[in-house]
Amino acid sequence: MIKLKKLSNSQLAIPLLALFLVIIFNLFRDVGFFSISVIRNNYGNLVLSGNIISILNGGSELAVLAIAMTLVTSATKGQDISVGALAAIAGSVFVRILRANQITMPVILLAFLAACIVAILFALFTGTLVAFFNIQPMIASLILFTAGRPIAYWINGGATPTVESPLLDCIGSFIPGIPIPSPILIVIIFGIFVSLVLRFTNLGLYTQAVGINERAARLNGINPVFIKLLSFIILGVCVAIAGCINVCRIGLINHETILIDIEMDAILAVAIGGNSLSGGKFRLAGSVIGAYIIQALTITLYAMKVPSTAVKAYKAIVIIAIVVIGSPVVHKYAHEFREKFFKKPMTVTENN
Amino acid sequence: MKNDIVLSMRGICKTFPGVRALYNVDFTLFKGEIHALMGENGAGKSTLIKVLTGVYQKDSGQISIPGVNKDITIKSPQEAQNLGISTVYQEITLCPNLTVAENMFIGRGNYHFINWRSREKKATEILSRLNIPTSATRQLGTCSLAVQQMVAIARAVDMECKVLILDEPTSSLDEKEVELLFSLMRDLKSRGVGIIFITHFLEQVYEICDKITVLRNGELIGEYEINDLPRVQLISKMLGKDLDDISELKNRKLSQNMQDAPLVYEATGLSSTEGIKPFNFFIHKGEVNGFTGLLGSGRSESVRAIFGADRVTCGEVRVNGKNAKISKPRDAMKYGIGYLPEDRKQDGIIEDLSVRENIILALQVMKGFFRPFSKSEAETFADKYIKLLEIKTASRDTPIKSLSGGNQQKVILARWLLTNPQYLLLDEPTRGIDIGTKVEIQKLVLKLAAEGVSVTFISSEIEEMLNTCSRLIVMRDRKIVGELDGEKMTQAKIMHTIAGEATQND
To answer: For the domain A52-305, what is the CATH code?
Structure first.
């Protein structure tokens, strides 16, 4: 009971509730929605298939980007809207290097590293504007939001080149013999890595301190400029991961459409996860759950045969509901309502 | 001049939950008079001004203005303006990206169509009439702060104000700019505008004002002609200590033999971007000394310079006899210096983080980015100091923002005690907290000193300084004007030194 109460006061209450509602809705709509089956894919491997797998698989890029967006939001009190465009740049670099060489595992690693470095450099450009020049993150990232895809276009000379290799399929779809899609594995590994970083460094404490009270953080010896830049470096890495996963998944780079509009979904994931968009305290788990809620919504709508052009409108309705339910005003009303109708003796905890 | 009252306030009371901000305060302003409103922080100056300008509504009392027959209740700043009461705040509230003329007319009247050409002409006229050295078409942000301040005044004056309130207009101006502002004030005075002038600079009060009204703890202490109230008296009235009954027999055992202890910190010619005059300063091991002076005298800026909180512009620093370079807080922390800032909310607490995280923050930063404390270590630290300082909190995981001010202060204190400093800078550690906690903190300071920690203590309450410090450095107008120790440390002496009249009155 106490645990339940703790959960209901926790930041994760709303995202978990939303996820629960999406699941319940689907159960009533179609009991078979959650069935997972084992099928044999084109390459003759036994793989898992079903809506849940599609949600987890398709939400990979968004989940990675939501992590980055959460950190940037916390440290800088603003959002980076150029992640989609940066992913296009990172993906283009990845493809360019792959196409210039015979595709082997070392080359793929090299190409990924190059994509990381390029993405970090571009993210640091935005980061510098934010950290040194105190430009609002959304404005600072507007530059690459606009210029990013044209830069990606230039990297591959305007074409939408394809890359094909069984090795890339291992990253983008399945590793032979493992029935779980590789992007899910990548997200799990990355998630473990990030939680280890949070556990064994002070990234979380410093980032939140800077986001909540920059002046006080500085007086305690934290360098706010460095922390903000660090969040953008992490953003660069995440963007490269998301871009490369997507390239491997579809086997080509189209700088115009790759991860288009994903920045808005990433920001939404942060908000749905119960994190304040004005920075400060954060829970990464909330953002990741938020990312999968968004993906689950999309898949649900597709399953309901909503035309793909109309999906966004329906998504918007649900998101409005989630965000409004999570708002402080509704919280206050809910609290008053509870006080009024389920009056309990006040539990005094604050006296000694 | 005496017969024209432009504003009178009688028996004004204003209570906030838990605080009596104003009690039975009278204030009278005559035509063509510059009237200083004096008092330390929390005396009720700003509340009185806010009641007058409609930001707050008075609980009781009367405000009357000639020409308006009945009692007035001012409900909004707009209404105050219509009654001829204009205010220019310390922070300039104009729009820097608009022109001077636009700033002078924006938000006034309910015109739908505006002839900017004629406005510019009118603005130019006003500017030249008031001798303000700028042109109407210039962008406000490109003018100096003084000129911006004057434009704000010009805007107020043009709204046919009879009462002009200047709330700390000079705090960000240099001497020349202040002179410029004063000549404008004298000009307005000769035109019959009544001016209420709020400042922390004593010199300026005596330079320009005709009368002084002193408030303390929300109550009226008195209204005086400037010539009837020498500086020392003014300070004693502001601080609430009568010169006659000064008991100076505080025991100060600590002051003895301080000279023999090694120097922990030593600075020569230290100055920062906050505009303090370069100063020399030192502290012995286990010594408690203090910076005293009125608000705005530069005492906070001095300790901030020592800690590297503001950008240090010049000066040499020696810690434990060795040359040291302190340019940012992290450097100071490495030398074992801790700093409890004056502004707890802005500079001290990290609101949303827990008591535990707030306590371990400084030590954690010193330990390093890659070496976080385990949760149990952090909890041990937190529990130890919650117990030691008797911090009243629901749990160590409670966000610090839900604690009372005094307990927040104890958390910040715990944060620095945890770092085991050799030198602590405490800027107003007792502000805004209850008497019991104040005494506890003073005791703690003495205990630390006995253990060999050096402490620099700042407090607005001279008594606290006398209780704890063995040496006082007196500041006025951003420079050190005296140093007192041993027998010389008396309230009278401090006040004389602050007033800068030591030689005349002794």
So the answer is: 1.10.3470
